[in-house]
Amino acid sequence: FSKGSFKGKDIPMAPRNLASTGIKTAFLKNVHWSLTGNYVGSSYAINDALNALPKVKAYFIAETRVSWEQKNWELFFGVNNLFDKKYFNYTVAQANGGTNSDYYPAPERNYNVGMNLKF
After folding, report:
1. pTM of the predicted model, to two decimals?
2. Fewer C-beta within 10 Å: the chain N or C terminus?
3. For residue 44, how many other CB atoms are within 10 A of its CB?
4. Torsion of CA 17, 92, 112, 81, to 10 degrees
5. Interior CA angle at 96 toward 90 and 102, to 5°?
6. In this predicted model, what pLDDT tens digit does every residue of 64-77 receive, in sequence order?
């Protein structure tokens, strides 16, 4: 915030530090593999415009995916939250100015499989 009563405060749920990195490679004829990592720095909970409560902890998660690609279609299998990290990606400070926050846990390790068609 640059003006008003919140001047100089951090914007809630907007971390100052955020980074992503990844690698994607192909092997055999049409098989691709990727690994990505996302770091989300600590931030204040939603509704905490005064930055009065402790920051929500930073976290790092990784995802991987393998796919078999052909001319106009792709089959894939992926793993999200590869290391099964326990973290909160959504936190809300009490609207009544209390000293508590409501924490919503992010999904644990989960899998996805699917097919993409290109037209």
Report:
1. 0.83
2. C
3. 24
4. 50
5. 25
6. 999 999 999 999 99
